[in-house]
């Protein structure tokens, strides 16, 4: 189970890295730096070498390679996400970037994969710690299997809901929806966010 | 606030604020992911409504006895992993099974039976009432602590001497019996002592009617009674060292515990020989004194003190705090000794630090007791504790060297009393006592 968990978490991390790397490569500033040769061996090696040295540096300081790669992934993705901001200088060249909808979905994918990778890493740690505490191996496997099952269903469900909301949101804002529908959606979103915050704060601060 | 929740909340706020700041739709929408994770995650509750029923095979046991502990755990609601850890005091040893379990609680209520065996290693009264649990949240990945208390305590009494009868041969032993003394308590003998005035409580049959009538003629109306000598009770005084040096060893095996075992064993032996027995502790934070007495009642009085003595000796935080030396303690009880010629037993761990203390105490005791052959009726039971901490061969050799040095230091002292070295790692107390048998008659 230990090897399977490791393999799955590495696979998820790699997948997140590839998507974020693709997002980085699609940005015009990066294309300018590498003079348009995104797929040339030189640019790939150089970019990944810089990343690897950053990961190595962070690893020696924090001893957490997974978190460092996650930060790198978010950093790469942010180069593609931020130019879509309306208030940011340079947003005028937005047509040269990947479309907003696809960027949003890809960003969502990066986040979901990173969450899976980090959670599986945590499970891997349990697999090391619990036997030392005296937990039976059979019980550990059962608990981890149940946790993985539960977490996967939960994560996919939440991500699905988020994907649906993103899709609905873009459809609403970009396909000339009526003003009343936009206002209604905005209020609905605001109500959901406020409700969530109220519920979470109640659970955190007022539950003994 | 749990770390996981803090991280998710921070990510949500950072994304939301930056989304608003840059007017970025992607950031705004993605910020909903951690929020949804938190909100929906909180809807799912970790295992709760936990009840634990605990049973122990015995309420009273002796040191070294094995006890069965059974737990019936019932988890009614919630979903997720749960860790159950039954609290065992530090002086107990886990023999079989485990007192720690981690299980998965699914949608249905779960019942769990846990059983394990423990060995009591030191005497005392212990609370075994607490069972702790930790329930994990399946999504938010935090753990919630809780405990359940049952009303369970256990009394662990020290071991008794394993006495073996030697048949067919009579042996001479250096261990003395007290030389005998008249006592003010005990069974009445036929030896007439005196005529004295009647006191309320005296039996009517002891009234000397002839003497009373003679007194009446003289105008004394108060009756007089015949007083007979009481049956002689031999008296034994046990002096138990409770100073810091007795704390040598581990939580499970230490000199103090073996000294308690020795007091219990010797006390039981002398009380069964119909002796008066007194117990005094010295060197500890509090001095314990059980006045001389006989019979089962006296045994239980001493046992009660022995059970509590553990809490008395190691609380002495200040090593240099002035405490009464053994010599002072003997001197303070001197009013009990005249006419009794008691036997003294000192139970200690001899080392360089207490050489002079024991020497002067033996000298003082010699004044109040009689000689039994070559030696006065003073017995020093030295508990050799160095090997209790030895884990490998070289440490065992080192402990033997230290013990040999102690033998050299105590050379003169050994000539002044009956000296018994007891190494609990190698032999039982009975074995150590039998070693001093010097010959056959």
UniProtKB/TrEMBL annotation, chain A:
Keywords carried by this UniProt record: Membrane, Transmembrane, Transmembrane helix
Transmembrane regions listed in the UniProt entry: 7-24, 44-61, 68-85, 97-118, 148-167, 179-200
Stated name of the protein: Uncharacterized protein
Source organism phylogeny: Bacteria, Bacillati, Bacillota, Clostridia, Eubacteriales
UniProtKB/TrEMBL annotation, chain B:
Annotated coiled-coil segments of the chain: none
Membrane spanning residue stretches: 5-22
Keyword Transmembrane helix appears in the UniProt entry: yes
Pfam families the record matches: DUF58
Record-annotated DUF58 domain positions: 194-312
Keywords on record: Membrane, Transmembrane, Transmembrane helix
Name used for this protein in its record: DUF58 domain-containing protein
């Amino acid at each position: 189970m230990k090897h399977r968990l490791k393999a799955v978490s590495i696979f998820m991390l790699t997948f997140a890295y590839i998507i974020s790397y693709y997002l980085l490569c699609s940005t015009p500033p990066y294309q300018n730096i590498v003079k348009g040769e995104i797929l040339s061996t030189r640019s790939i090696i150089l970019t990944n070498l810089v990343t690897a040295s950053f990961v190595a540096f962070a690893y020696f300081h924090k001893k957490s390679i997974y978190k460092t790669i996650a930060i790198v992934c978010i950093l790469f993705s942010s180069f593609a996400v931020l130019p879509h901001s309306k208030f940011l200088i340079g947003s005028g060249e937005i047509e040269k970037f990947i479309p907003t909808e696809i960027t949003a979905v890809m960003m969502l994918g990066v986040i979901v994969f990173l969450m899976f990778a980090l959670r599986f890493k945590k499970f891997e740690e349990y697999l090391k710690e619990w036997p030392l505490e005296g937990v039976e191996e059979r019980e550990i496997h059962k608990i981890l299997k149940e946790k993985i099952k539960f977490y996967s269903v939960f994560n996919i469900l939440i991500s699905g809901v988020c994907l649906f909301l993103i899709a609905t949101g873009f459809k609403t804002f970009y396909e000339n929806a009526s003003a009343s529908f936009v206002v209604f959606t905005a209020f609905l979103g605001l109500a959901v966010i406020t409700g969530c915050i109220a519920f979470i704060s109640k659970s955190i601060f007022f539950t003994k | 606030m749990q770390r996981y929740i803090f991280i998710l909340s921070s990510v949500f706020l950072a994304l939301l604020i930056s989304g608003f700041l840059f007017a970025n739709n992607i950031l705004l929408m993605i910020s909903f992911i951690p929020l949804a994770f938190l909100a929906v995650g909180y809807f799912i509750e970790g295992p709760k409504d936990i009840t634990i029923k605990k049973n122990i095979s015995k309420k009273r046991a002796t040191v070294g006895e094995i006890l069965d502990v059974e737990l019936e755990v019932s988890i009614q609601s919630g979903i997720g992993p749960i860790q159950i850890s039954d609290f065992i005091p530090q002086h107990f040893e886990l023999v079989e099974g485990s007192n720690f379990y981690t299980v998965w609680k699914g949608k249905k209520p779960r019942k769990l039976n846990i059983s394990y065996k423990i060995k009591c290693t030191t005497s005392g009264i212990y609370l075994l009432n607490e069972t702790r649990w930790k329930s994990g949240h399946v999504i938010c990945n935090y753990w919630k602590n809780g405990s359940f208390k049952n009303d369970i305590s256990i009394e662990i009494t020290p071991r008794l001497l394993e006495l073996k009868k030697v048949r067919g041969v009579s042996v001479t032993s250096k261990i003395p019996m007290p030389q005998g003394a008249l006592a003010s308590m005990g069974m009445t003998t036929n030896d007439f002592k005196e005529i004295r005035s009647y006191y309320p409580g005296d039996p009517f049959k002891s009234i000397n009617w002839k003497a009373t009538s003679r007194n009446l003629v003289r105008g004394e109306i108060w009756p007089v009674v015949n007083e007979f000598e009481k049956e002689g009770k031999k008296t034994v005084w046990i002096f138990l060292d409770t100073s810091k040096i007795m704390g040598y060893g581990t939580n499970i095996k230490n000199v103090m515990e073996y000294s308690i075992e020795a007091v219990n064993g010797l006390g039981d032996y002398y009380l069964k020989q119909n002796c008066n027995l007194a117990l005094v502790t010295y060197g500890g934070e509090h001095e314990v004194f059980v006045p001389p007495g006989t019979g089962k009642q006296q045994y239980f009085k001493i046992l009660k003190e022995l059970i509590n003595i553990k809490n008395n000796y190691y609380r002495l935080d200040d090593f240099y705090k002035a405490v009464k030396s053994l010599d002072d303690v003997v001197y303070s009880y001197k009013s009990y000794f005249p006419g009794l010629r008691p036997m003294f037993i000192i139970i200690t761990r001899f080392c360089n630090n207490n050489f002079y203390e024991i020497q002067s105490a033996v000298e003082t005791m010699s004044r109040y007791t009689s000689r039994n052959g070559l030696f006065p009726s003073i017995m020093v039971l030295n508990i050799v504790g160095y090997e209790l901490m030895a884990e490998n061969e070289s440490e065992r050799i080192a402990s033997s060297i230290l013990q040999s040095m102690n033998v050299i230091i105590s050379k003169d002292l050994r000539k002044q009393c009956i000296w018994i070295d007891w190494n609990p790692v190698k032999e039982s107390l009975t074995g150590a006592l039998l070693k001093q048998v010097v010959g056959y008659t």
